[in-house]
Amino acid sequence: MTEERPVLVIKLGALGDFVQALGPFSAIRAHHAGQRIALLTTPPFVPIAEASGYFDDIRAGIRPAWWQFGAILELRRWLRDLNPGRVYDLQTSDRSSAYFKLFASPKPEWSGIAAGCSHPHANPRRDDMHTIERQAEQLSMAGVSLNAEFDRRWLDTNIAHFGLPKPFILLVPGGAPHRPDKRWPHYPSLALRLVQQGMTPVVLGTRAERDVIDEICSVCPETIDLSGKTTLMDIAGLSRNAAAAVGNDTGPMHLISTTGCQSIVLYSRASDPALCAQRGPDVRIIRKDQLADVSVEEVEAELTLR
User: Fold this and answer.
1) Would you call 196 exposed, middle or buried from its count of C-beta atoms within 10 A (0-12, 13-18, 19+)?
2) Distance of CA 212 to CAs 11, 30, 176, 194, 219, Å?
3) Which residue, 6, 122, 133, 199, is most buried by CB atoms nearer than 10 A?
4) What is 161-302's CATH number?
5) Of 199, 225, 198, 197, the residue nearest 210 (C-alpha)
């Protein structure tokens, strides 16, 4: 591979997947020290990518559908102008694998699952692996060593403007509206119990979770509602200052847990933590077939309140 040619990393989303690619990003940066590294991603993740310092160039845009010919041609032009010597496809989807075909011959070196690529992740059971282990093995097959203890100190920001009293605990009660089986229903009761123990509940979320958040704040008026008021970097900063976090299997919990915040993550049978569980220095998983069967007492028992 020509040393002067840049390296391209592809990671499009979702949030949890992007967070779990931070270790691979760090490993690729270390392996290609001194080379220009570009990232192809989607707009929500640009602030994290910029703060990381791993990338020299970041391109974020739509993921064109097959019928969006103009957008596909624009993407092809950008890829060919970049002219990378090696591509790390950490998305490994049908969409990202198809980008391999957008390059003229000779193709760049390619780590991923695209047919005919130079460094395939040649494990037929790759889909049965946790994301972290799967990416580590993929990189290993391309000659890149992944260190699970990479530096995360940059994943932080000043949260003084929120004026939060300490100690506080983050609650992440939301999740996709079409997946109610991934939402724990007992956050209002947990918020009340936390207040009784001198903790301030701080709720994170979006407008899509307004009904759940309104219920928590109605039952427990001491709750501070930060829904719709935080950036991803704000969430990282909040997690570094929180006593703990309790949340469903959502992207924000991946971000919170990777900072080292004590994280209690609640799973139903709708998702398998063996494949996608949050990772970090202090993560505890509670899983039952039905989330309603997880009691407030069980969650409290996992919390180490300081």
Assistant:
1) exposed
2) 31, 43, 12, 18, 11
3) 199
4) 3.40.50.2000
5) 225
Summarised one tens digit per residue, pLDDT across range 195-206 is 999 999 999 999
**CATH superfamily label, 7-141:** Glycogen Phosphorylase B; (3.40.50.2000)
Three-state SS for 162? helix
Q: Please, what is the angle between helix 187-196 and helix 210-219, to 10°?
A: 40
| Structural contact between residues 185 and 291, judged by C-beta atoms closer than 8 angstroms | yes
Rg (CA), the chain: 21
- Tens digit of each residue's pLDDT (9 = 90 or more) over 10-65: 999 899 999 999 999 999 999 999 999 999 999 999 999 999 999 999 999 878 87
Instruction: Give CA–CA dist 10/42, Å, rounded.
Output: 10
CA proximity to 276, closest of 138, 150, 177, 128? 128
Q: Tell me the sheet residues that pair with 216.
A: none
* Sole residue written with tokens 């427990």: 220
What tokens does 262 get? 């004590």
CATH 3.40.50.2000 domain residues, the chain: 7-141, 161-302
| Helix, strand, or coil (residue 178) | coil
- Helix or strand (DSSP H, E) at 218: helix 210-219
* pLDDT band with cut points at 50, 70 and 90 for residue 2: very low
